[in-house]
Structures are given as structure tokens and as C-alpha cells.
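Obj: model holo form, ligand = nicotinamide-adenine-dinucleotide.
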Amino acid sequence: MSFFESKVALVTGGARGIGLAIVEKLLENGIKGVAIVDISDESWNTIKQDFQSQYGNKVLFIKADITDKDEFEGAFEKTVHTFKNLDIVVNNAGISGQNWEKIIAVNLEAVIMGTFLAMDKYLPTYRSGKEGIIVNIASLAGLLGLADKPVYTATKHGVVGLGKSLGADKSKNHVRIITVCPGWIATSMTEDVTDDDLKSVDPSHKGKALYVLIVCLLDQGNKERMSNSLIWQT
Ligand SMILES: NC(=O)c1ccc[n+]([C@@H]2O[C@H](COP(=O)([O-])OP(=O)(O)OC[C@H]3O[C@@H](n4cnc5c(N)ncnc54)[C@H](O)[C@@H]3O)[C@@H](O)[C@H]2O)c1
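Output (holo C-alpha cells):
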């Protein structure tokens, strides 16, 4: 049996970009079920038919705002109600932009909320095996200072700190926390990234990596897209 066959995952922001790439990889690798939790169903509506014809009822789309505790917890509930298990929670949804309060709410507060819901309640109760996994998608901005994105940078440093702190107690509820720090990846979020922005990325941080641990559990993933990322594993 493959690692994923008995597993169920929940991926926030899974309707497009990196989150969607994670969802696709999980499905390609035979996961039992995956819940996409996203505030917008626009992207989902364009891929829904393909996904459903290819993967049937292995994919559940849940429209929810992860900054709203009831909606976020409701998404966990719907996932376990549908698939009966939950093994992997990927806190991926994130934003950049001008509204610093919103950036903190999505990139940090909701990641903390998703981590605690997973670690304290849903993974210990519903995992199918001995271990649950939380993957928090931070950024190279969690390790470096991006001159023009101070709040985004602060939130990603927060996500890295969260993983370091919680990962210090490896036995906690038999849940492993993995914080992933990707470099630039072409998605809707990075449409406005310029060559000058890219120069500010310290090449010494280009390293072994992956933007998805789950991908790396089984294969090397897409090396080009992963080539300037770091993995932080605790
Ligand atoms: N693209 C990059 O270069 C890059 C680099 C490093 C880290 N990251 C991080 O990777 C993650 C994904 O980024 P992306 O580039 O795929 O972005 P994206 O904008 O393409 O996708 C983000 C998804 O999150 C969803 N989302 C946003 N706010 C939400 C909310 N409140 N509730 C639920 N869903 C919400 C969006 O609808 C969207 O589907 C983010 O955390 C981002 O900070 C991206």
C-alpha cells in the first residue's frame, strides 16, 4: 500500500497556485481523499469537472474563509464527516498586498489556528495511522527580510517560529510539523514580481528543497519549481 492510500488531507488555499499543485500531487499519488478549503470558488469552478471526472469523490471543495474560526473549524468537520479520517493538514493559503491587518489575519493568525485545530484536536482524533502531519507554507521571506514586504515578511517569520517552537516537542500528540519556505514560484500572487525583486533573494538560500513536503515524501517533485526553496523540517 502506498503511503497515501489510506490518508486524507486538508489543504487551505488549494483552489489555485501552490495549494492546487499540492492537491494535484496528493491525488496523483493515490491519496484517499483531499479537502480543498478556499475562500473563492472561482478557480475551482474552472477545474471542477476535470477533477471530478478524474478523481470522482476523492476531492471535496469547501468554500470557507480561514480567518473566520467557525468557518475554518466547520471545514475540518466537513472533511472528517466526509472522509472519516484526517492525516495531513496543509496550511497554505496566504496573501500579500497593502492591507497589513488582513495579511496578518490570513498568513499568521489563520495558520496558528489551523495548526492548533490540527495538532490538538483533529489529527489526534482522526488520523488513520500513528502520525499526523502539519505542513505550514511559509516563504523565503520567513528567513530573509524582503525590503518592500515588511508585514508579509513578519508573518512568514512568525510561521517559521511557530514550527520551530512546536517542533521542539517531537512527541506532542504524535504530530509532525513541517514548515516549508519556498522561493519565488509563478502564481497569481507573484504576478507583480520584477527582476529587481528577484535580485534581493540571497543565492545562499537556494537549496535543497521542496515547496511541498508531501511531494518529497514520494518523489523529487518538480525540480525546477523547487530549485530555490528551502525545507525546514522539525
Ligand atoms: N508564489 C510564491 O512565489 C510564494 C513563495 C513563497 C511562499 N508562498 C506562499 O505560498 C502560499 C500560496 O501562495 P500562492 O502563490 O499559491 O498564492 P495564490 O494567490 O495563487 O493562491 C492563494 C489561495 O489562497 C486562497 N485564500 C486567500 N485568502 C484566503 C482565506 N482567507 N481563506 C481561504 N482561502 C484563502 C486564495 O483564494 C487562493 O486560492 C502562500 O502562503 C504564500 O505566501 C508563495
